[in-house]
Amino acid sequence: EGDFGYTGPDQNQGLGPITENQTEDKTAPIINLNGDQIINLKVGDTFTAPTVESVVDNVDTLTSSDVTTYGTVNTSVPGTYRVVYEVRDTAGNLGTKVVTVIVAAE
C-alpha cells in the first residue's frame, strides 16, 4: 500500500557517486580585475570601481557577467570601504576578490 513506480533520478542521492573518470570540483573560480586592489583617494575624488578583466575556473566557462559586485564608496566621507566581487561555478565554489578603498581627509 502506498508503493508506486518511479523511473526518474533518485532525488535523495543527488548526482550519484563520482566515477573513476570524474573528480569532484572543489576549486573556486578566480576573478582578475583591471586595476588595483587597494585604492587611495582624498575626500571629493571620483571613484571608479575596477572592472572584471576575466574569470578563470578549472571546469566552467565563466565571464564578467557572472560576477556580482557588492559595496559602496562615499568619497565625501573619510574612511575605509570595501567593494566585493563574487562569482560561483556550477559546483557552488565561491570565488571572491576584495578591493579596499581608503578615502582620506585632505
Characterization of this structure:
There is one protein chain. With 106 residues, this protein is mostly beta strands. It has strands spanning 30-34, 38-42, 51-56, 68-70, 79-88, 94-104. Strands 2-6-5-4 form a 4-stranded mixed sheet, with no helix packed on it. A two-stranded antiparallel sheet has the order 1-3. It has no helices and 6 strands. The mean pLDDT is 86.
**Hey, roughly how much beta strand do the residues contain?**
35-45%
SS content category: mainly beta
Cα(first) to Cα(last) distance is 79 Å
Largest sheet: 4 strands, mixed
Q: Please identify the oligomeric state.
A: single chain
Helix content: under 10%
Regions with little confidence, pLDDT below 50 for 5+ residues: none
If you compute it from the alpha carbons, what radius of gyration comes out, rounded to the nearest whole angstrom?
21 Å
The helix count comes to 0
Order of helices and strands: EEEEEE
Strand arrangement within the widest β-sheet reads 2-6-5-4
**Would you count the extended β strands for me?**
6
Mean pLDDT: 86
Overall geometry comes to elongated
Can you describe this structure in just a few lines?
By secondary structure, the chain is mainly beta.
Topology at a glance:
Layout: E1 30-34, E2 38-42, E3 51-56, E4 68-70, E5 79-88, E6 94-104
Parallel strand pairs: 2-6
Antiparallel strand pairs: 1-3, 4-5, 5-6
